[in-house]
Amino acid sequence: MWRIGIDLGGTKIEALALSPEGEEYGRRRVPTPRGDYEATLQAAAGLTSTLVAAVGRENVAGVGIGIPGSLSPRTRLVRNANSTWLNGRTLDRDLQAIIGLPLVVENDANCFALSEAADGAGEGCRTIFGVILGTGVGGGIVTNGKLLKGRNGIAGEWGHNPLPWPDEGEKIGAPCYCGKAGCIETFLSGPALERQYRARSGRSLDAISIAECAAEGDAVGEAALGVYARRLAKSLASVVNIVDPDVIVFGGGVSNIAPVVGEGTGRA
Ligand SMILES: [Zn+2]
Questions:
Q1: How far is the CA of 69 from the centre of ligand 1 (A)?
Q2: Distances in whole angstroms, Cα of residue 67 to Cα of each of 29, 71, 85, 135
Q3: What is the distance in A from the centroid of ligand 1 to the CA of 182?
Q4: What's the pLDDT score for residue 253?
Q5: How many angstroms does the Cα of residue 137 sit away from the middle of ligand 1?
Q6: DSSP-derived pairing of the beta strands 78-79 and 70-71
Q7: What is the pTM of this model?
């Protein structure tokens, strides 16, 4: 049977079908209708229906959807999503009503960590910490091939811990959508990097363009990436002290910036 996977991100929604042999088919991507829950449902359902039509509904076993945040095990409502228009919503039931196929919703960083552990950069490793550095910052832990979900379904969610070992200037952090201030996410998300660069240079560039400028010798870009890398290292050091993983695998748009995580290790 075929399976359909959807990555419902804060910037884009991407979908593909996996054949019974595990081969990828029909990858498509659309911008996320930010702030609009109904339009987000329709965008995800539209991508799914295109793939379902292509491979035949009777051949599809189900749909898996990775989201920022997760479903509360108690209420089944979305919470902790930096795509805040998903929070408090019955996303799995609403999508299932439109799509009409078996459907599972899981935290995107958990999906990423499990995928990398199965046949990616963490293959063969006993303990994997998967990190998402994108519109938000998330994490997932896999041990011995199994996802560690945790009692509340939040295992690995390091993005809303405070930045450890703050330097001067980091002690009073920016407000976070979660209600706290100075969360790791407010330092390490793509929008955070862009904000830091804008504050130093007065120029508005996306994270990839900042990296390109830095590679061409832009001193402000180099400095912003240097500060970013130091903050990332401090944030991960506190994870290592608890999880002690065999490997840390990076995903998400910002992880594709080589100076941030080292050459060749980033994956989108
Ligand atoms: Zn937060």
A1: 12
A2: 15, 9, 12, 12
A3: 7
A4: 87
A5: 10
A6: antiparallel
A7: 0.89
How buried is 231 (Cβ within 10 angstroms: 0-12 exposed, 13-18 middle, 19+ buried)? buried
Report how far residue 64's alpha carbon sits from residue 48's, in angstroms, rounded to the nearest whole number. 10
Neighbours of 74 (CB within 10 A): 9
Beta bridge partners of 128: 142, 247
DSSP state of 170: S
Residue 60 near residue 4 (C-beta atoms within 8 A): yes
Are 114 and 107 in contact by the 8 Å Cβ rule? The answer is no
Task: Give me the torsion for CA of 159, 162, 164, 169, rounded to 10°.
Answer: 110
Pairwise CA distance, residues 246 & 71, whole Å: 28
Q: ∠ CA 137-143-147 to the nearest 5 degrees?
A: 60
- Per-chain mean pLDDT for the chain: 93
Ligand 1 mean position, distance from CA 186 (Å): 7
Helix runs in 103-148, H state only: 108-119
Angle separating helix axes 190-201 and 207-215, nearest 10 degrees: 50
Binning pLDDT at 50, 70 and 90, where does residue 95 land? very high
- Which SS3 state, helix, strand or coil, does residue 265 take? coil
In this prediction, residue 225 carries a pLDDT of 93
Write out the two tokens for 14: 């991407």
The pLDDT tens digits for 169-213 are 898 889 999 999 999 999 999 999 999 999 999 999 999 999 999
